[in-house]
Amino acid sequence: MIKIEEKINFYKNSLDSFEETMDKYKFLLDQGKKAILFPEEYRKESFKVEGCQAQVWLVPEFKDCILNFYSDSDAFISKGMVTILTDIYGKNKPADILASNFESLKKLELDVLLTPGRRNGVYAMIQQIKKYAHYYDEKSI
Questions:
Q1: For the chain, what is the domain count?
Q2: Which domain holds residue 15?
Q3: CATH number of the domain bearing residue 108
Q4: In the chain, N or C: fewer CB atoms in 10 Å?
Q5: Could you read off the pLDDT of 50-84 as tens digits, one per residue?
Q6: Mean pLDDT value across residues 26-45
Q7: C-alpha torsion sign, points 33, 39, 45, 47
Q8: Quick check: pTM over 0.85?
Q9: 3-state secondary structure string, the chain?
Q10: Longest dimension (CA), the chain
């Protein structure tokens, strides 16, 4: 299993390989295109991430003590970002997610790449991931 920090470094190196901002945006868009198909029955208000400019859905799946996520958005950049975040934090034990250094995401330099509104949306996505990790960490005790 690839560790959270290794995935963050993978995305950092991927973004750093592009000199132009537009190429970095294209990379984010491409990540959204790679997302697994989002089941329509999950497109509910209860799974929406509050605080995003776009509509973003983040659905937890907890099986065999591993937390994974389904995600989608109606905006391409948001879909790319939520896809990256669910790839980084998904397929991990809730305790490992909670123990990870969320500050490591700053390596991706999203504050430079994204508008303030989109940065707030990413923050809201991260908070939702933490919330699910807390919930399922308590369930697995």
A1: 1
A2: 4-139
A3: 3.90.1010.10
A4: C
A5: 999 999 999 999 999 999 999 999 999 999 999 99
A6: 94
A7: negative
A8: yes
A9: CCCHHHHHHHHHHHHHCCCCHHHHHHHHHHHHHCCCCCCHHHCCHHHECCCCCCCEEEEEEEECCEEEEEEEECCHHHHHHHHHHHHHHCCECHHHHHHCCHHHHHHHCHHHHCCHHHHHHHHHHHHHHHHHHHHHHHHCC
A10: 47
